[in-house]
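**Archive record**
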Amino acid sequence: MGQVLSRLRTFFKFPGRSGRPSSPGRGGAPGPRGHNIFEAAATYVCACAEEDQERIDEASGWVSPEALSFGVNELACRAVIALARERNESPRAVARSLLGLPVA
């Protein structure tokens, strides 16, 4: 699992983006450093995988629930595509396999 997360971190480096746009945290006050939706999504998903409720709550406060949902969806899509390429399978087959569904 650690190797997959490491590859995802590498996969999500966007050319021409600093990854540091300011976003308000909980309560509408910006923190010492803002977080973008992809940073929030990556932290949130990793925290869920590690069952770290404190980090889940922290990442949930970095962006709006809608933005977090978008980021998690984007992460899921990119992860399935990356795994499909690595396994030389279709994204559909990989997604169904990850969820324990029959690959029909």
Summary: Helices lie at 2-11, 37-49, 53-60, 65-87, 91-98. Residues 8-32 have pLDDT under 50 and may be disordered. The radius of gyration is 15 Å. The CA atoms of residues 1 and 37 lie 22 Å apart.
